[in-house]
Amino acid sequence: MTVAVLVCFQGRAIARPWTTREPSHPPNPAHQLRSSSYWPAEPSVPDGIEPVKFQQAYAHLCNLATNAPRAALASKILEVATSTSTDPFSLAALAFFTSHCDPDFHHESSYGLIAIEPAMYRSSDAPPLPIDRSLLNGHSLLDPANNLAVAGALLSWWQDHHKEIDRWFGGVSHRTALSHMIWGDEVRSSGHEDLVLTARRRMIASYLGTPETPRKAPIGIEIVPPLEGAPRVASSGPGDDRDGGARQHRGLDLAATLGEPVRSIADGTVIFAGANIPGKSRKGPIPPDQIGRYRNRRLGVGGIYLCIQHQAEPKKIVSCYMHLQSYVVAEKQEVKMGETIGYVGRTGVRVSPPHLHLEVRVDDRFTNPVRTLGETCIPPQATLTHQYVLRAKRARRLHV
């Protein structure tokens, strides 16, 4: 028999039917929207999924060769999704978000391809799970077949029960049962689910071969978004304070996951490829095969970055991409719209989650990339992060 557990919520005691299941270590921070209504409807699962195309799309998502052993796990993802009545693209997106598609993943108390934490499911008074508890151990979860079988069964269980669990445990507003795979019973941020669903959109677009449609930007050229899976959440824009108001932000921060491909927004020529070095404005050119040695160094606020000139006349138009993990193009190289030029990192970042810092300059004047990206970007004003920044700014003004 389940025993109600009393907890304090906003100054009042409420009954929960069992002890809250939750991760031992909170997930890394992720930016959260003020309302999930900012998101468009997510794409549906394609009919009649073709295994070969699914593996190709999974390899693209995970930045793997299509015939790599890790990419071959796509067939197991399809098999488990069918047997558990779950969405294979969601399972694949979870693998990318939680472990970067690494079946040998082990961090703190989480294991395997879907980074399952056994301790989260060991609450003695919680309802029975749809799996044999003996499978909830590190050794078993490092077997990718077992890990996926457990993940599929758990995701199916959360799908069946998450609405009633939300009524019992509260938590922040979120969209799907995917949040519970990360947080357990009480969802404390929707930002992580948003990143998983973004990965899902990326994979479905790759599977379908959806063409990227350029849009005419107000700056006068046609562009595509710098990241796949639009729309993307922008957590901070031009003019926002940095270092306690000591300097101002010059670009747009787009929420992302480490290792995602970064694309040139338009045709152009690479005019800088290097890094922001403390004590110097920049160091470059640095060839792409040598930039990896700077990844773990202490860098200036831009980190590893690229700049591309898209037009010289009648207006000079330049875009810059900062905080990269690495890049794959060289200075003076011609690039095409949508071409992968590098990968999302955290170089030069002090406290923020992984993101791409995008700058768009017209005649050496910094512009607001929100207007350039249009509907492919959810503006910073829609995030809780922006609200916190404004509160901190007001507090500093009061103490001046």
Plain-language structure description:
By secondary structure, the chain is of the alpha+beta class. The protein has 2 domains: 21-36 and 45-208, Lysozyme (Orthogonal Bundle); 223-398, Glucose Permease (Domain IIA) (Distorted Sandwich). The chain contains 9 helices and 19 strands. It has helices at 51-62, 74-84, 88-99, 138-141, 144-169, 178-183, 191-208, 369-373, 384-398, and strands spanning 5-9, 12-16, 106-107, 110-111, 215-216, 222-223, 232-236, 241-242, 247-248, 252-255, 261-263, 268-275, 304-311, 317-327, 334-335, 340-344, 355-362, 365-366, 377-378. The strands form 5 sheets. Strands 7, 10, 11, 12, 13, 14, 15, 16, 17, 18 and 19 form an 11-stranded mixed β-sheet that branches. Residues 6-13 have low confidence and may be disordered.
Topology summary:
Blueprint: E1 5-9, E2 12-16, H1 51-62, H2 74-84, H3 88-99, E3 106-107, E4 110-111, H4 138-141, H5 144-169, H6 178-183, H7 191-208, E5 215-216, E6 222-223, E7 232-236, E8 241-242, E9 247-248, E10 252-255, E11 261-263, E12 268-275, E13 304-311, E14 317-327, E15 334-335, E16 340-344, E17 355-362, E18 365-366, H8 369-373, E19 377-378, H9 384-398
Parallel strand pairs: 7-19
Antiparallel strand pairs: 1-2, 3-4, 5-6, 7-10, 8-9, 10-17, 11-16, 12-13, 12-15, 13-14, 14-16, 14-17, 17-18
Helix pairs in contact: 1-7, 2-5, 3-7
Total count of strands: 19
> Into which percent range does the helicity of residues fall?
25-40%
Rounded mean pLDDT is: 91
Strand-pairing-aware structural class: alpha+beta
Determine the N-to-C terminus distance.
59 Å
Low-confidence stretches: 6-13
Structural shape:
globular
- Helices, by number, come to 9
* Rg, Å, rounded: 22 Å
How many domains make up the 3D coordinates? 2
Main sheet specs: 11 strands, mixed
> What is the chain-wise order of helices and strands?
EEHHHEEHHHHEEEEEEEEEEEEEEHEH
The CATH architecture assignment of the largest domain turns out to be Orthogonal Bundle
CATH topology of the largest domain: Lysozyme
CATH class categorisation of the largest domain? Mainly Alpha
